[in-house]
Amino acid sequence: MDYFLHLAIVVTIFSILAMSLNYVAGFTGILSLSHATFYGIGAYATAILTTQYGFSFVPSVVIGMVLTAIIAYAASFPILKLKEDSLVLVSFGFSIIMFNVMLNWTSLTKGPLGIKGIMAPEILGVNFFSKPYFFALVLAVAIITYFFFKRITSSPYGIIMKGIRENQTVAAVNGHNVLRYQRSVFVVGAVFAAIAGSFTATFLAFIEPKLFELMPSMLILIMIILGGMASLKGSVLGAFILILVPEALRFLGLPPSILAEVQQMIYGLVLILVMYLRPQGLMGEYKI
Amino acid sequence: MLQVRDLNLRIGGLRILSDLSFDIKDGSITGLIGPNGAGKSSFYNALFNLFPANSGSIKFDGIELVGKTSDQINHLGIARTFQDSKLLPQITVLDNLLLGSKYLNPVNLRRVFFGHKTLKEEFKNEKKKAMELLRKVGLENKAHSLAKNLSFGQSKLIEILKIFMYESKLVLLDEPFSGLFPEMVKVITALIRELVASGRTIMFVEHDMRLIAEICDHVIVLDAGSKIAEGTFEHVKSKPEVVEAYLGN
């Protein structure tokens, strides 16, 4: 039971991440490889503030969100100035820089040693250490995330987002300030990634920079490509499949030393198959 | 309404528009004609700042357009279509029309969450308006289809319908009839007449001289980025330089 709850929590956290990236990439066409960076900033904010400065969970999450919003806003200037392939590469460059900040600012992040002993969330006197409680909390946040993005994407704002994704020139000629919308979407998506990061930090009770490098960004991207671009339900489905299917490998008796590599090969294979067989993903409406 | 003065546009080393100057009167229908490569579509692109002008001025109701962004220019009340259909293929026909909608206040997250009722009401009205337009041209059954599933003629039609989605004062049409069957030409001509009747000022690029003669009250002829003649169609077609550069014998 404990194992299944563990998986359910991981799937739910990744669902938040996938929905937030789908909001940015699937709905608006900003194919960013820096999502794990914002996930990391949220995680580090909660880890540092709760272990080193005595903050409780909620203020640490809020500070993490604000900090992420500021950094994402600043990063949006170089990233959104470019389009398509160039944008992807610049967002990758940004994530390399931020990864190295997490790795080398040892006085704050403890570098490669990571931060240990991060306490479980406690809100209004209720401790969420036990897995059922933690799952209920993160599930509630995931449901709020879903309805938050649903409300935006099914409003006129969502039509403008999709218009920008399809053709920025047409969106601008139709009277929409493309850069302003893109910037808002990028920052909001990053803030939700930060929330997922705060939950990851308190769930694992330990974080290290490796958790927030390129591979997690790729994994979240593959989740939304598999589940379907511009589909919130597809994001959840993508997270569900890509967390659970590789997990099943544990039962095939593979040596633990190669398990992570085989999992990554599965992610790669899924990406190739989806792009060839169903480029709009399982529930998506938009082909890359 | 529109004053163009000494407009110059260069792309790379190429001179696209040279010292272009003309006026467009309020409520007029002006045809912009000339051979391929004369700079007709480029003028539209320069007006919308898609190709920033190198020098000169374009004033709309006294407001300088050069230096403004495309969205700002649209907000002043100028709409345009493109020579090649620019319908967005992976969104629905209805959403393509709604992308051209104008709301009382800018659509932002504050309005999505805290002004939800008013935005919802406006959105409902815009949807109703879009559906009425689709019904008028018999395409209401295509409202929820992706735009990529439309035929070429239907795409052109939807491009024109987008113009009706908000109260623009000046409409720039870029070859709205090219590649269309005669039946579709009739439908689009009727829509253009409706645009004119609604008081909009129209400027359009077209190669069909019969339509230009029929619809336009003023014609500007471009060749190699320069204006070579201007006036009524009867006037410009009598000019030897126009005959030589474009109309032929």
Briefly characterize the structure:
The complex is a heterodimer of chains A (288) and B (249). With 288 residues, chain A is mainly α.
Describe this structure in words.
The complex is a heterodimer of chains A (288) and B (249). Chain A is mainly α. Helices cover 73% and strands 3% of the residues of chain A. Chain A has one domain. In chain A, the strands form 2 sheets. Chain A has a two-stranded antiparallel ribbon with strand order 1-4. A two-stranded antiparallel ribbon of chain A has the order 2-3. Chain A is globular, with a radius of gyration of 18 Å. Chain B is α/β, with parallel strands linked by helices and 249 residues long. Chain B has 2 domains: 2-87 and 166-247, P-loop containing nucleotide triphosphate hydrolases (Rossmann fold); 90-149, no CATH class. In chain B, helix 6 (152-163) runs parallel beside helix 7. Chain A binds chain B through residues 151-152, 155-157, 159-160, 162-163, 166-167, 169-178, 184, 188, 285-287, and chain B through 48, 50, 69-71, 74-75, 80, 82, 86, 88-91, 95, 98-103, 107-109, 112-113, 119-120, 122-123, 126, 146, 162, 166.
Topology diagram in text:
The complex is a heterodimer of chains A (288) and B (249).
Chain A: H1 2-26, H2 35-52, H3 57-80, H4 84-104, H5 106-109, E1 115-116, E2 122-123, E3 126-127, H6 131-153, H7 156-166, H8 168-173, H9 178-204, E4 206-207, H10 214-227, H11 232-247, H12 256-277
Antiparallel strand pairs in A: 1-4, 2-3
Helix pairs in contact in A: 1-6, 1-9, 1-10, 1-11, 2-3, 2-4, 2-9, 3-4, 3-9, 10-11, 10-12
Chain B: E1 2-11, E2 14-24, E3 29-33, H1 40-47, E4 55-60, E5 63-64, H2 70-75, E6 78-80, H3 93-98, H4 109-114, H5 116-136, H6 152-163, E7 170-174, H7 182-197, E8 201-205, H8 209-215, E9 218-223, E10 226-231, H9 233-237, H10 240-247
Helix pairs in contact in B: 6-7
- Rg over alpha carbons of chain B: 19 Å
Please give the domain count of chain A.
Answer: 1
Instruction: Give the SSE string of chain A.
Output: HHHHHEEEHHHHEHHH
Span of the ends, CA to CA of chain B = 34 Å
> Helical residue percent of chain A?
over 70%
Oligomeric category: heterodimer
**Molecular shape of chain B:** globular
Low-confidence stretches of chain B: none
Most extensive interface, residues per chain? A-B, 26 and 34 residues
Strand order of the largest sheet of chain A: 1-4
Helical proportion of chain B?
A: 25-40%
Question: Mean pLDDT of chain B, nearest integer?
Answer: 90
What is the succession of H and E elements of chain B?
Answer: EEEHEEHEHHHHEHEHEEHH
| Major sheet attributes of chain B | 6 strands, mixed
Fourth-level CATH superfamily of the largest domain in chain B: P-loop containing nucleotide triphosphate hydrolases
Report strand order across the widest sheet of chain B. Answer: 6-7-8-3-9-10
Q: Residue-averaged pLDDT of chain A, rounded?
A: 94
